[in-house]
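Notes from hallway chat w/ T.B., transcribed later so I don't forget. T.B. wanted the structure written out for a chain they're using in a teaching module, and asked if we could keep both sequence and structure tokens in one place. Agreed to drop them here.
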Amino acid sequence: MRAVGLGVFALFPFGNAEAAGTRIGFVDVQKVIVKSVAGAAAREQLEREKAAMQKEVDGRRAEIDKLREELEKKGLVLSADARREKEEAFQRRVRDLRRLTEDYQKELERKEQGLTQRILQDLTGVIERVGKERGYLLILEKRGASVIYGDAEGDLTEEVIKAYDQEKAKEKK
């Protein structure tokens, strides 16, 4: 899945930093999406849909190849009208396949974005809860906030993955 930046999660009001704590952490959201159970399930779902779409495209491509071979073999013996009709049918199928491929690509991108958005919405709540429980003033998204260096103590990624997986497991029950 594509890296999607969450920006900055302001978890506490900035008015009283001493009361809220001064800890700042970061989360690699892309890693959470890749390693979490929900993220893996979303990728598997997309791969199944992609495979079904690819099967359809491959079937149509085989039909086009068969039509091309027929045109090459029998093209010289066909009348001009029959040859033109076959060539037009061939071109139509090529255009239809191109459109179908583009439509499938757009559909997969739309579904991927939808699944990613749903995961990100869930993650926001999990990250807020982890931040509050651990006393963080601010939690940044590692890639979107361009965190060049972050001490391992500030990396909450694994903790967020664990909390997110636990939350999803509770929802299934």
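Follow-up for T.B.: Residues 34 and 40 are 6 Å apart (CA to CA). Might be a good example for the class.
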